[in-house]
């Protein structure tokens, strides 16, 4: 049971980072289905940074920068050019997938998979290692859980959070009060990319210290489902991520059961949970009112 819980926490960390990014972006009024591509960028550039420097910490920093950079493209298309945010996010997913796949060849001289690089150490302080469920966990898990409560405090207990929520609910009213709608949305979308990039790093050098084509495997979309499941709130989103991560961890454990079922059945468990969540079985959820709506200054 301890191994299952520890595995759930490890699998939840990448989802939590990306889902928190989605919360910030959509709370400001910008739909970001490009989280998948931003996680891909984070996963690849974390490995690249660790490969070139030998430091997983520098790899993590590069992953955050890469995620933020591609998110800035989404912000420009969505905010300045008022492009369809779904199409923009989809384009980013396709671009990130192709770019990472292309760069593997000239950099690592292989096809479809990078070399194994130095991953993040599992060196937690001694008093944490003595807690059974925390054995085998790394700093990504701790950071993800801390960021959940920091994000919740920022969004619901600070003036900054109030501005973000105002921009996502009624941007014209926020503009009237002197809030720079464009600036807030830019910052939140870029922050979402940075968090998704961190999620990608947690998936690659935090769990499997390499990058291979398809390793993100829809986790960006699962993070979006977790955000909806959690009603666009950090703590609720965290529990949703835990549920989906439990599905992933359980399918790994369940394959060792004596029950004669195809492996594909077990592998589908987290995606079945995602579809159930998106189908509305989690109860009523309510997105920010201006979510997905481009803002034009001066319009009412």
From TrEMBL:
Protein topology in the membrane: Multi-pass membrane protein
GO cellular component, one term: plasma membrane
Transmembrane region(s): 6-24, 31-51, 57-79, 86-108, 137-156, 186-208, 214-232, 239-259, 265-283
GO molecular function: transmembrane transporter activity
Main location (coarse class): membrane
Record's subcellular location: Cell membrane
Keyword field: Cell membrane, Membrane, Transmembrane, Transmembrane helix
InterPro entries reported in the protein's UniProt record: ABC_transp_permease
Protein name in the entry: ABC transporter permease
